[in-house]
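To: structure desk
From: M.T.
Subject: fold request, one chain
Message: Could you run this one when you get a chance? Sequence is below, nothing fancy, just the single chain.
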Amino acid sequence: MTEESIVQPTWRQLAATVDELQAESVSDWFVAQGALSVGFDDAGDQPLFEPPPGETPLWQRTKVTALFEGDVDGELIACAARHHFGDRILDWTAVIVEDQVWERAWMEHFKPMRFGRRLWICPTGYEPPEPAAVNVILDPGLAFGTGTHPTTALCLEWLEGLELAGRTVLDYGCGSGILAVAALKLGAASAHGIDIDPQALTASQDNAQKNAVEARLTLGFPADPGLAAADVVVANILAGPLVELAAAILGRLKPGGYLALSGILAEQAGSVQAAYVAEVEFDPVRQREDWAILSGVKRSA
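Reply: Done. Structure tokens follow.
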């Protein structure tokens, strides 16, 4: 027996494609077989937008993917699944996932990126390509926001185009803190980041420290009292919450202040704009791929 023949795979990934009505039961069955994690994905190229509160979004053809220890008998689990679910399983795949340094895998897809004329987002461990530019060193951790998504890119370019010197900025739904930190590096006097996820606040604090701007950044939850209105508000979340939170977001923006709203599919821009237009003079909608950013100025009266 060779050394190669006794090496065990680190993980085994098994996936069943089923009708959406079967997805939850297949997920529960995988867990009962000892799955370490289970996730859902689209198996039919079907767009899926925001679900109602409390509902789990599923596709008509849903791929239920389970991760197991590498030494499980994948063929035995496949046979058991076929026996249990029969022709309700439309497709089955099995993949061996080799162990790797996941931080390095992430770094392979996240390279330094420029936004506008002078702003660079550089992942931790990279030397900034233009040391004299405005460089934000970023490690998103468990929070959303690297600049690779079109909505984040649109927000970064918008911030880079503003005159931020001496102004206060509110990042509503701060995620990794990328927008708040970028605003501070671009010259804002202070910034405040709010999010409902404690992991986002932790990631934002870490990234502020990496960029030596933590003294000018405060972080908290949306319900925290005593938050003064800002000169600039940027909210990169989702269309539904942007509509629901319109009054709260507008209440955090000074008259004459600058507003940017993103996380919006282009086809949703009209409904989001309608929730703010009574108080905001909007610029033309800017779009990248299927995503849009709404920007404008809050009316003084």
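Reply (cont.): The first helix runs from residue 20 to 32. Let me know if you need anything else for the meeting.
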